[in-house]
């Protein structure tokens, strides 16, 4: 089956490096069909071209004047449908940071045709996964200590609003999000059940409900599968929760 062309944006502050990538992309076009949609010398230029050209892949140097490659990747990953980022740099020490940013690959200069081919193949698979995946399976994007983490939505037990943040809880740990509960509820329709004005629980993680002991009539609490924490159900939401759970 014929592969579609990958639309590629090349970002590097050095003209010889941009020319080298242009030539390499031409060399590997038979194995990985591609078309260059633009060249940029820094992150600011790249963001403008991403808006104008909607590339599938961004090949980005890391050390550039102005907005560098790391900052560019952070900006792109905040978008709903970001292009796949591949770092190209002479500095191997950035490799760990690159993968913390969830970039597709990290190519050390001088970039070789074989490595570029492999990286583009990985990028193509990521693009296909994004285009075919249901939006309800989109991972949560979490900014944390200069890194962007992608948290699989299937691993989230509940989402709870606390002051100005929303906490996403998995079995392992908590993550702080900047998005509102209402936005998250709309983004993942049917995945979460609202049990309180400040709490959404993953429907498939609910094991049942129980009354809270020693509290008069007692509130109803959600019992989670393989997790000890109990979550209170508000009086207002209890009729809806009871109906949805068939109680």
Descriptive key words:
phosphoprotein; 7 helices; OB fold (Dihydrolipoamide Acetyltransferase, E2P); about 250 residues; 2 domains; alpha/beta; Rossmann fold
Could you characterize the architecture of this molecule?
The chain is an alpha/beta fold and 247 residues long. It folds into 2 domains: 6-132, Rossmann fold, CATH 3.40.50.2300; 140-245, Beta Barrel (OB fold (Dihydrolipoamide Acetyltransferase, E2P)). 30% of the residues lie in helices and 30% in strands. The strands form 4 sheets. Strands 2-1-3-4-5 form a 5-stranded parallel β-sheet, sandwiched between helices. A 5-stranded antiparallel β-sheet has the order 10-9-8-12-11. A 3-stranded antiparallel β-sheet has the order 13-14-15, with no helix packed on it. A hairpin with a 4-residue loop joins strand 9 and strand 10 (174-177).
Report a brief summary of the structure.
This protein is α/β, with parallel strands linked by helices. It contains 7 helices and 15 strands.
């Amino acid at each position: 089956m014929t592969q579609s062309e990958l639309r590629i944006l090349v970002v590097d502050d050095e003209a010889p490096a941009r020319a080298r990538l242009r030539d390499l992309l031409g060399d590997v076009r038979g194995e990985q069909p591609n078309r260059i949609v633009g060249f940029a010398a820094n992150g600011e230029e790249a963001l403008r071209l991403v808006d104008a050209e909607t590339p599938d892949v961004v090949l980005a140097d890391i050390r550039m004047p102005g907005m560098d490659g790391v900052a560019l990747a952070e900006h792109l990953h905040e978008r709903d449908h970001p292009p796949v980022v591949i770092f190209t740099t002479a500095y191997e020490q950035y490799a760990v940071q690159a993968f913390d940013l969830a970039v597709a690959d990290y190519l050390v200069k001088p970039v070789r045709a074989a490595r570029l081919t492999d990286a583009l193949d990985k990028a193509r698979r990521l693009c296909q996964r994004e285009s075919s995946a249901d939006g309800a399976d989109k991972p949560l994007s979490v900014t944390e200590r200069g890194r962007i983490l992608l948290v699989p939505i299937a691993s989230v037990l509940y989402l709870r609003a606390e002051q100005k943040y929303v906490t996403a809880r998995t079995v392992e740990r908590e993550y702080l999000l900047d998005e509102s509960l209402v936005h998250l509820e709309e983004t993942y329709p049917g995945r979460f059940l609202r049990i309180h004005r400040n709490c959404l629980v993953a429907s498939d993680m609910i094991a049942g409900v129980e009354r809270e002991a020693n509290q008069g009539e007692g509130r109803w609490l959600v019992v989670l599968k393989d997790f000890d924490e109990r979550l209170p159900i508000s009086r207002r939401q209890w009729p809806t929760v009871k109906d949805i759970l068939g109680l």
